[in-house]
Hints:
The complex is a heterodimer of chains A (about 120) and B (about 120). Chain A has about 120 residues and is an all-beta fold. Chain A is about 0% helix and about 50% strand. Chain A has strands at about 5, 10-15, 20-25, 30-40, 40-50, 55, 65, 75-80, 85-95, 105, 110-115. Chain A is globular and about 40 Å long. Chain B is mostly beta strands and about 120 residues long. Chain B is about 0% helix and about 55% strand. Chain B has strands at about 5, 10-15, 20, 25, 30-40, 45-50, 55-60, 65-70, 75-80, 85-95, 100-105, 110-115. In chain B, the strands form three sheets. In chain B, strands 2, 5, 6, 10, 11 and 12 form a six-stranded mixed β-sheet that branches. A four-stranded antiparallel β-sheet of chain B has the order 3-9-8-7, with no helix packed on it. Chain B has a two-stranded antiparallel ribbon with strand order 1-4. In chain B, strand 7 (about 55-60) and strand 8 (about 65-70) form a beta hairpin. The model of chain B has no long low-confidence stretch (mean pLDDT about 90). Classes of the chains: A mainly beta (about 120), B mainly beta (about 120). The interface between A and B is medium-sized, with 25 and 23 residues.
Amino acid sequence: EAQVTQNPRYLITVTGKKLTVTCSQNMNHEYMSWYRQDPGLGLRQIYYSMNVEVTDKGDVPEGYKVSRKEKRNFPLILESPSPNQTSLYFCASSLFGQKDNLPLHFGNGTRLTVT
Amino acid sequence: AQSVAQPEDQVNVAEGNPLTVKCTYSVSGNPYLFWYVQYPNRGLQFLLKYITGDNLVKGSYGFEAEFNKSQTSFHLKKPSALVSDSALYFCAVRLLSGGYNKLIFGAGTRLAVHP
């Protein structure tokens, strides 16, 4: 089944403890992206990747890192989480970076709480 | 600034009645518009898109959307609502940024369909 898989689904951590949220897609998509969803703000893009070893900042990149060493994986790293990073996170992918207006495929989300 | 707005936080509809979820946009050039739906504990799913052509676009699950250039709107509609349509709906507009296309999402509208 074609899908975007995120892990974990739920994560509770403390301020300053490094964490990684994994994202993997099995559709051979070139483009991958991370979003955070907050009430009243919709989805805001954190980072995106056009292909392997090509990443760039989205609208809210502060406090986050990403890597794209393989086409299928795009982990989101929080080196020193803070409470304002408590949010619902989504990974998404599409075939060609949306230039062909192909829709994004989303994972089921990771709910992160930082205390 | 280029943006997309969903003026209603929540829309309540009785089952069997028609529903409308509103979306307005502000972009330069021709808009490429999308609707996504988010069911509880799931990622966003693509519903439909407008790129060009017929102003009435048909999508998944019986939904359709009407593009109105003069009113800069792209409202989502369904002739007869189902309880299972209850979900969070996001309108999005494609922007050309840094040589690639990115999606800007509205804040979302929660649709509640009552039996």
